[in-house]
């Protein structure tokens, strides 16, 4: 009996949900608009599902057997592990990319209760791995990858098309890489402390063609933006990086274009990094298996439901703090809130667990957990 089957059969409290769990996934990095629309259509036919979408993939977590012919399909524990891998950034171009965790969390926000419960375990396992590992990269480091792939040195003028989260991180990374001038191209003047007129210059998107000559062009427009045509572009002297999904740039341009799909392939083939991804995946499997174990043994008890409710409240507050204070690393917020909750409630829950009066324990739990959640 393999480790996944052992988990399913040994811990019957969660086996029903886990046994029916399925995941269908499509890689959408650097596809065009029509291809992305077709993937979205295929993903939409799963009812009662959770759709996790990012610039690299569309993942559908559901509980029904299907014949959608998705190129990636997982079942039971492996489906849950896949969600944890994505949330931990192990499947991202930049290993450990933190932004994808929020995308997974958003995809699970309105999921049916069984999927939400399992998804919470995957997210918790991903956070635990992130807390014990060293990940220094973020979306902005895609600039480094693109420059290395094209054999281009940092410097000169760079134009970053798009002022969303990805565009901001890339522009900030361009400052760190000491580009001489950073031009931010967007529909409207960017707002926020990150955009400093002394370090960056704004160009309206509809006047991009006048911004040249540019040494490096990076596009990171959202999925609703229209693709750029050759006539929209300024003179580009060295290279471009198309980081949009769907693609922002057309084929046949007179300069090298590095796509997110090419970077994704390169990151998976790199020797030392591929080995590290494999080691981290193994560690994540162990963390997730332990959490499934704990949830299975504890989920039907009053104390287990109390711990689940405390974790739900902690995660909600951690998400709110991270949103209000983006300057604080998410791993720091996780460590502080988790430590505080554990310190406040660990002793009490252990004493309740050992009480000979189950009715008393349930009364205490009901102070925190509403009856309909029990």
Distance from first to last alpha carbon: 33 Å
Q: What ranges have pLDDT less than 50 throughout 5 or more consecutive residues?
A: 1-13
Radius of gyration: 23 Å
Q: Could you describe the largest sheet, including whether it forms a barrel?
A: 6 strands, parallel
Overall form: elongated
Provide the descriptors you would attach to this structure in a database record.
four-stranded antiparallel beta sheet; 13 helices; 374 residues; alpha/beta; six-stranded parallel beta sheet
What does this structure look like?
This protein has helices at residues 3-10, 12-19, 33-44, 76-88, 99-108, 113-132, 142-150, 165-176, 260-269, 271-298, 302-324, 330-353, 358-366; strands at residues 22-27, 50-53, 57-62, 72-75, 157-161, 181-186, 200-204, 214-219, 236-242, 257-259. 37% of the residues are buried. The two termini are 33 Å apart. Mean pLDDT is 86; it is low at 1-13. It is elongated and about 75 Å long. The strands form 2 sheets. A 6-stranded parallel beta sheet has the order 7-6-5-8-9-10. A 4-stranded antiparallel beta sheet has the order 2-3-1-4, with helices on both faces. Helix 8 (165-176) links the parallel strand 5 (157-161) and strand 6. Helix content is 50%, strand content 14%. It is an alpha/beta fold and 374 residues long. Helix 4 crosses helix 10 and helix 6 crosses helix 10 (271-298).
List the helices and strands and how they pair.
Elements lengths: L2 H8 L1 H8 L2 E6 L5 H12 L5 E4 L3 E6 L9 E4 H13 L10 H10 L4 H20 L9 H9 L6 E5 L3 H12 L4 E6 L13 E5 L9 E6 L16 E7 L14 E3 H10 L1 H28 L3 H23 L5 H24 L4 H9 L8
Parallel strand pairs: 5-6, 5-8, 6-7, 8-9, 9-10
Antiparallel strand pairs: 1-3, 1-4, 2-3
Helix pairs in contact: 1-2, 2-10, 4-5, 4-6, 4-10, 5-6, 6-10, 11-12, 11-13
């Amino acid at each position: 009996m393999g480790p996944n089957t052992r988990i399913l059969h040994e811990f019957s409290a969660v086996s029903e949900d886990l046994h029916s769990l399925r995941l269908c996934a499509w890689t959408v990095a650097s596809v065009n608009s029509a291809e992305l629309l077709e993937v979205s259509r295929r993903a939409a036919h799963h009812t009662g599902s959770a759709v996790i979408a990012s610039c690299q993939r569309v993942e559908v977590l559901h509980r029904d057997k299907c014949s959608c012919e998705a190129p990636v399909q997982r079942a039971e524990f492996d489906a849950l592990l896949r969600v944890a891998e994505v949330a931990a950034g192990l499947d991202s171009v930049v290993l450990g990319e933190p932004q994808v965790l929020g995308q997974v969390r958003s995809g699970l926000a309105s999921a049916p209760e069984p999927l939400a419960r399992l998804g919470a375990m995957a997210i918790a396992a991903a956070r635990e791995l992130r807390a014990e590992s060293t990940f220094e990269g973020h979306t902005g480091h895609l600039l480094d990858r693109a420059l290395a792939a094209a054999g281009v040195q940092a410097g000169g003028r760079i134009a970053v098309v798009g002022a969303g989260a990805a565009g901001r991180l890339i522009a900030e990374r361009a400052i760190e890489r000491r580009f001489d001038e950073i031009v931010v191209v967007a529909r409207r003047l960017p707002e926020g402390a990150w955009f400093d007129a002394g370090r960056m210059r704004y160009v309206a998107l509809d006047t991009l063609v006048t911004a040249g000559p540019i040494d490096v062009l990076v596009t990171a427009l959202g999925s609703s933006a229209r693709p750029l045509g050759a006539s929209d572009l300024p003179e580009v002297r060295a290279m471009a990086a198309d980081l949009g999904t769907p693609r922002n740039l057309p084929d046949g341009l007179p300069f090298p274009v590095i796509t997110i799909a090419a970077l994704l392939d390169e990151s998976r083939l790199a020797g030392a990094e591929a080995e590290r991804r494999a080691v981290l995946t193994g560690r994540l499997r162990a963390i997730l298996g332990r959490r499934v174990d704990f949830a299975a043994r504890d989920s039907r008890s009053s104390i287990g439901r109390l711990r689940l409710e405390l974790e739900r409240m902690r995660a909600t507050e951690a998400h709110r703090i991270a949103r209000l204070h983006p300057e604080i690393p998410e791993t720091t917020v996780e460590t502080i809130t988790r430590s505080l909750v554990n310190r406040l409630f660990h002793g009490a829950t252990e004493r309740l667990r050992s009480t000979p009066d189950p009715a008393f324990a349930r009364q205490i739990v009901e102070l925190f957990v509403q009856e309909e959640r029990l």
